[in-house]
Amino acid sequence: MLISKKNRREVYKYLFKEGVLYAEKDFNLPKHPEIDVPNLEVIKLMQSFKSKEYVTERYAWRHFYWFLTDSGIEYLREFLNLPSEIVPATLKKSTRPLEREGARPPRRDGPPAASATARGELSCWGALLGAGLLWLPGLVPLLAALLC
């Protein structure tokens, strides 16, 4: 398939910048959602890259997903005349902090029920259940009347 050099360059630039490219499996889609290139041309270029092992391909839910390999990065660097300091976004280190502030309060020691019984916050039925007295069917109404 003949693809203009302008369109080829646009797809290559986007793929190198992001490190990942996707396309819906719709050969009649006029334009790719991210790049101003027909979807068919994107799919065919990536099909060629896959055969040269410049990308790995995954397919799920009517979408193709392509991930750059090391040999693909080298090829695109050479094609786009980029220095070796520039790397795809998938290889860049994350700049976010390891722990977010205020994400969760610290955990308390022990299970919540144990701390509730220690504070005397359980209801009458909870106290009977905790004492193991609810298994006596005849004593339940009597104990409930006396204790509650």
Description:
With 148 residues, this protein is α+β, with helices and mostly antiparallel strands. The chain contains 6 helices and 3 strands. The chain has helices at 5-18, 39-51, 70-80, 112-118, 124-131, 139-147, and strands spanning 20-24, 55-60, 63-68. Strands 1-3-2 form a 3-stranded antiparallel sheet. β2 (55-60) and β3 (63-68) form a beta hairpin. The termini are far apart. The mean pLDDT is 82.
Which consecutive residue ranges, at least 5 long each, have pLDDT under 50? Answer: none
Strand percentage lies at: 5-15%
> SSE string, helix = H, strand = E?
HEHEEHHHH
Which value, in Å, is the CA radius of gyration? 32 Å
Q: What is the helix tally?
A: 6
The major beta sheet can be summarized as:
3 strands, antiparallel
Characterize the overall form.
Answer: elongated
Helix content: 40-55%
Spatial arrangement of strands, main beta sheet:
1-3-2
Mean pLDDT score: 82
Return the structural class: alpha+beta
Cα separation of the termini:
84 Å
The number of strands is 3
Transmembrane segments: 125-147
Region (Disordered): 95-115
Protein name: Plectin/eS10 N-terminal domain-containing protein
GO molecular function: RNA binding; structural constituent of ribosome
Spell out the blueprint of helices and strands.
Layout: H1 5-18, E1 20-24, H2 39-51, E2 55-60, E3 63-68, H3 70-80, H4 112-118, H5 124-131, H6 139-147
Antiparallel strand pairs: 1-3, 2-3
Helix pairs in contact: 1-3
